[in-house]
Design a protein that fits this description.
Methylamine Dehydrogenase, Chain H; five-stranded antiparallel β-sheet; globular
């Protein structure tokens, strides 16, 4: 049940966030180890066929290779023409979605933790373990700015809808745990950093409020105009902690990944937020982005092992959920033979790109989530 946060809730943050940080660090290590264990011969055979047939026609389900150490995250540009894929080695590869050919590569970070396109698609923002936030010109494939101020890991980034303000969140355990606001035009920090311990955040449509989820499941509203003011009260679920969260495009729903890696869906358009119980229990595979919403917010995908027994039958699969029905749209879709580490829907909702520990991104037409 959602209620006002107490001082005791704040006191419980450190051990909870320490467990979360330890799991995240181990997950990054597991991606590297598993990727190294994959058969290079099998990868080479698949790569030799490429994404086009002998006549030059694009294959139905292309496979994008070359992401060293495994895929950490991926994001489509707002116009859908580019797919940016980050790997464990710290590089970002840019793919042309009309041909699925590699069109650029950015050096990135020592280890990248998040990436996002600006609303106009001209700039790609990346954040990582090196305490920096970098801005890249997508067309020129060049670094155009760098934000400094965080100490340690920078876990999350989010643009306001008009693209004028950027929010960055430092990791609590391996970083400074603050949210910082930046003027995109000047790259200057706006206001004073706010201690938040955020694992996910999103702006309201008018840009006046930044809502964030912290590691123990608390949802808080940050008044951007009167910064640095946190609007009381905050709300929490009574659960011990959350490992990740993904808001819908309009910010009205939030998918939470609990400590035991089970899913929860919340209506966060109201105060207090309302739990929307899912009709089927499912478990997530570890990874950088275990859930993703389709652009219209009516569907979300979750990476799932579906291991109700010890059978690895559903490893590397994605479950598509109908938000209105709060139930799966069908059987799990097989994308990888091993773990899924991230996914993204194209802006038209037709294509789902799914990254894995084997360093590949696999694509599938998932139909129209609008129907």
């Amino acid at each position: 049940m959602w209620g006002s946060t107490t001082a005791d809730g704040a006191c419980s943050m450190r051990p909870a966030k320490q467990r979360l940080a330890t799991r995240r660090s181990r997950a990054l290590g597991l991606i590297t180890v598993l990727a190294a264990a994959i058969s290079f011969a099998a990868v080479a055979i698949e790569r030799s066929h490429g994404n086009h047939d002998t006549a030059g026609r694009l294959k139905a389900f292309p496979v994008l290779h070359g992401h060293k150490g495994g895929v950490l995250g991926l994001e489509f540009s707002p116009d859908g023409r580019t797919l940016a894929v980050a790997d464990v080695a710290g590089k970002i590869r840019l793919w042309d979605t009309s041909s699925w050919r590699l069109v650029g590569e950015l050096p990135g970070h020592t280890t990248l933790l998040d990436l996002a396109f600006s609303p106009d698609g001209r700039t790609l923002i990346t954040a990582g373990k090196d305490a920096s936030v970098k801005l890249w010109a997508v067309r020129r494939r060049s670094l155009v700015g760098q934000l400094r101020g965080h100490r340690g890991w920078v876990l999350d980034v989010a643009f306001s809808h008009d693209g004028k303000t950027l929010a960055t969140a430092g990791d609590y355990y391996y970083g400074d745990g603050t949210i910082r606001l930046w003027d995109v035009a000047t790259l200057a920090q706006a206001g004073t950093p706010v201690k938040a311990d955020a694992v996910a955040m999103w702006f309201s449509a008018d840009g006046r409020t930044l809502t964030f989820l912290n590691a123990i499941g608390q949802v808080k509203d940050y008044d951007v105009v009167r910064r640095p003011v946190l609007r009381p009260p905050s709300f929490d679920t009574g659960a011990t902690e959350y490992g990740n969260g993904e808001p819908s495009p309009d910010g009205s729903e939030l998918v939470l990944v609990n400590e035991n890696q089970s899913l929860m869906l919340w209506d966060v358009s109201r105060r207090p937020p309302r739990n929307l119980p899912l009709r089927e229990r499912t478990y997530q595979s570890w990874g950088a982005d275990p859930v993703a919403f389709a652009p219209d917010g009516k569907t979300f995908g979750s990476a799932s092992t579906y291991r109700r027994t010890s059978s690895p039958q559903y490893a590397g699969t994605v479950v598509l959920w109908d938000v209105a029905r709060r139930a799966p749209r069908g059987r799990p879709l097989q994308f990888h033979n091993r773990g899924v580490t991230g996914m993204a829907f194209s802006p038209d909702g037709q294509t789902l790109a799914v990254g894995g520990v084997d360093g590949t991104v696999r694509l599938r037409n998932v139909g129209s989530p609008r129907t």
